[in-house]
Design brief:
35% of the residues lie in helices and 17% in strands. The chain is α/β, with parallel strands linked by helices. It has two domains: 277 residues, Spore Coat Polysaccharide Biosynthesis Protein SpsA, Chain A (Alpha-Beta Complex); 45 residues. An eight-stranded mixed sheet has the order 10-6-9-4-1-2-3-12. A four-stranded mixed sheet has the order 5-11-7-8. Helix 1 links the parallel strand 1 and strand 2. Helix 10 packs parallel to helix 12. The chain is globular.
Amino acid sequence: MEPYISFVVASRNDNHGEDMLRRMQLFVNGLLHQTRKFKLQAELIFVEWNPPKNKPLLHEVLPKPTANDVLTIRYIIVPEEIHHKYKTSDVIPLYQMIAKNVGIRRAKGQFILCTNIDLLFSDDLFKILSSHQLSAQCFYRANRCDIPATIEPGWSFDRQMDYAKQHIMRRFGMQYYYKNLADALPVFYKYPLLATVIDNLTGIKRRLFNKGNLEHIVRQLDVQACGDFTMMSKGAWLDIQGYLELDMYSIHIDSLGIYAAAALGYQQVVFPPDACTYHIDHKNGWESMTPVEKIKFVEQRPGLGYDIMYDTSRYLIKNKLRYNLNKPDWGYEGYDFKEIDY
């Protein structure tokens, strides 16, 4: 049976972000458990980009499906000779979005969820994924909730879920209940009655005065931590030509994927707050850095700035365009990479 959803991630066994192997083990075990629990036919595609020569390959160290599992796992190996074609290859060991394009091109699922390897998914989110109610005309977003790294692989999955729910450190993403308050002050969300009143007034203003307003349309798009959860049909991913394959650090490239989908008329769906992902915190993560640390980080690894991202979003959506920057064989279509399947 063909999978309903393909989970696509990119990684390598180099401990990037600290304690990476443990976080990947949590991620894989969580998917194995929930696909069994909710009977979701799915595949997990690991695009193993530029694997280190002195470390085992990921399939050798990560959990494997058993006879009782409904999740298949595919490891696609992108060798170092591909990696070293890029100018910044010496300072960026993993081109995350180009790697995910490799997975998108080869995914067998009706829907493709591009996500990351240090996440757990809430049961509320998995109920939605397994309901088979997704639309090919939409793209889907879920909030990301950061949790402490002290969560343990040895705990039962129910204990892990309880821990995650009770230890949310930060939340990223649009507030599902107040769709008109995309750019509101966070304090509004602490007072539901106030937020509801202001949200309704904002909605009335939008309908009367801002209908079709480009600025409002762009602000309603949920790009916070969208690299952790962006899902749409495979046809939609092919329509937007995947992620931009840029020879630079991946910052904001995930957001450009959201803008590309909106520009072609795909409708955004933001899942409710409890239907979220739980991101295992690590101090080298982007959101854990201070602004000064981010300056030094980007100095070493060039990336897109906010100004280009926002200007591009408005240009693309206003003119209903594709980027048309990727080559026709983006995602290395037709390239025969080594693949190990379970």
